[in-house]
Amino acid sequence: MNILDISKCKLIETDGVFTFKNDNTTLGFVRFNNKGEVEYIFVNPIFRKQGLAKQLLKLVKEKTGKKIILQEPISPLGSKLMKSIEEWK
Fold first, then answer.
1. Measured distance CA(40)–CA(81) in Å, rounded
2. Which one-letter DSSP state was computed for residue 38?
3. % residues pLDDT > 70 (the chain)
4. Following CA atoms 34, 36, 42, 43 in sequence, which dihedral angle do they give, to the nearest 10 degrees?
5. What beta strand segments (E) does 1-89 contain?
6. Nearest to 36 by CA among 71, 60, 12, 56
């Protein structure tokens, strides 16, 4: 697995949203509330399987100080992601 070097990406934080961008496109973003509930997470298919979703969720956890909760419905990829973040407890 190739881990994306996020130090080369631009992190944009707005109210309840973290977005990673490079010079050409949006790599991914997460929308969340102050309870730690993730309302939506998206990673551009070109940048999937490189740890970007986990980085976004870690930012949410740091910002809210809460346990991450993925709101329903959870896609098959979201279910895999949820299993991997359960290890953070």
1. 13
2. E
3. 87
4. 120
5. 10-14, 17-21, 26-32, 37-43, 69-70
6. 60
For residue 19, pLDDT over 70 is answered with yes
pTM above 0.90, yes or no: no
Q: What is the mean pLDDT of residues 13-17?
A: 95
What per-residue confidence (pLDDT) applies to 33?
A: 94
Average the pLDDT over 11-27 and give the result: 94
Q: Which residues contact 78 (CB under 8 A, 6 or more apart)?
A: 41, 70
Spatial distance between the Cα atoms of 74 and 19, rounded to a whole number of angstroms: 20
Q: Domains of the chain by range and CATH? A: 6-88 (3.40.630.30)
d(CA 7, CA 86): 25
